[in-house]
Amino acid sequence: MNVIETREIIYEYPDGTKALENVNFKAEDGKIVALLGPNGAGKSTLFLHFNGILRPTSGEVVVNGHPVSYNKKDLMKLRQNVGIVFQNPDDQLFAPTVMEDVAFGPMNMGLSRDEVEKRVKDALKRVGMEGFEKKPPHHLSGGQKKRVAIAGILAMDPKIMVLDEPTSGLDPKGASQIMRLLYDLNEDGMTIIISTHDVDLVPLYASTVYIISHGNIIKEGNPQTVFSDVETIRTANLRLPRIAHLMEILNKEDHVSFGKPYPLTIGEARRKILEEVED
Ligand SMILES: Nc1ncnc2c1ncn2[C@@H]1O[C@H](COP(=O)(O)OP(=O)(O)OP(=O)(O)O)[C@@H](O)[C@H]1O
Ligand SMILES: [Mg+2]
Questions:
Q1: β pairing state of 2-12 and 58-63
Q2: pLDDT tens across 207-234, in order?
Q3: CB of 7 within 8 A of CB of 60?
Q4: Is the pLDDT of residue 259 over 90?
Q5: What is the phi-psi region of residue 254: left when phi exceeds 0, alpha when psi lies from -120 to 50, beta otherwise?
Q6: What's the gap in Å between 272 CA and the centre of ligand 2?
Q7: Ligand 1 within 6 A of 51 CB?
Q8: Which residues form the ABC transporter domain (predicted)?
């Protein structure tokens, strides 16, 4: 079942910019779906449709089989179900302290004080931000803000979590840690949708990949299928994962082949190289 589906959505900003041309996007229940695309492609615009912040100029957004209803009460319910972590944490964090910020969502859900406290503590721990409870968010570093913003959505325990560039601004360890957290949440049944430029991380985690360019989805499939279409990847100003790029160079320049499709991860490449060496 698709928990989120957009049907032929077109979105035009008030100034006339056509940011989405005709987008059909689906996220299946329990999957990790990645949306890749260059700057200005329409990733953030598309994501803001998933919980009704933006309303399509035409077409429809369907969540759990129901077209989104834009009255206030239904939108509130929708937003407990679909949590969105914005690309820029400054658009999200607003409370005087980290603790109050993370507590805001669960408190609005009418949970008990104890439950809210438990969730805040757990969420901050999972993003590696324990001990920052009393700090004002504007005194945090960029990466720390990002983690707190993720914790704020996490604390609401949504069924579907949408993260706009969750690893941008994080150091390598922080990025892996957040991806690992998303992986664990997904194992526990949460559907995860992320946008990213980080093509090295995508094949490790995502089961479905979409490529968006100039407001159009130009490719979709599993990572192996999508990254085999090198031409489309480059047309969209994206690149292959480093490992696949190395395999491509070895193949084309040095006529050393480890077979196609090119391995996308260190693990796969290692296996293929060892197979060759041992022959
Ligand atoms: N509030 C706005 N008003 C008018 N045009 C906008 C607005 N927000 C975004 N756009 C335009 O819509 C298009 C899509 O922007 P969007 O932010 O969705 O891209 P993106 O894929 O998220 O890019 P990035 O990788 O830089 O985050 C761009 O051409 C952008 O200039
Ligand atoms: Mg964006």
A1: antiparallel
A2: 999 999 999 999 999 999 999 999 999 9
A3: yes
A4: no
A5: alpha
A6: 36
A7: no
A8: 4-239
How many residues in total does the chain contain?
Answer: 279
Question: 24: buried, middle or exposed (CB in 10 Å: 19+, 13-18, 0-12)?
Answer: middle
Residue with the two structure tokens 């928990």: 3
Q: Please report which confidence band the pLDDT of residue 198 belongs to, taking 50, 70 and 90 as the band edges.
A: confident
Question: Which residue's structure tokens are 């960029």?
Answer: 142
Which of 166, 50, 155, 51 shows the shortest CA–CA distance to 104? 155
* Domain map (residue ranges) of the chain: 2-228, 240-279
Per-residue pLDDT reduced to its tens digit, 165-182:
999 888 888 888 889 999
- The most distant pair of C-alpha atoms in the chain lies apart, rounded to whole Å, by 65
Say if residue 70 is exposed, middle or buried (CB neighbours under 10 Å; 0-12, 13-18, 19+).
exposed
Superfamily for domain range 2-228: P-loop containing nucleotide triphosphate hydrolases (3.40.50.300)
Q: Residue 233: phi, psi to the nearest 5?
A: -55, -45
Q: Is 121 helix (H, G, I), strand (E, B) or coil?
A: helix
Ligand 2 midpoint to CA 257 (Å): 37
Which residue's CA lies nearest to atom 17 of ligand 1? 44
Cβ–ligand 1 contact at 49 (below 6 Å): no
Could you tell me the distance, in angstroms and rounded to a whole number, from the CA of residue 98 to the centre of ligand 2?
A: 24
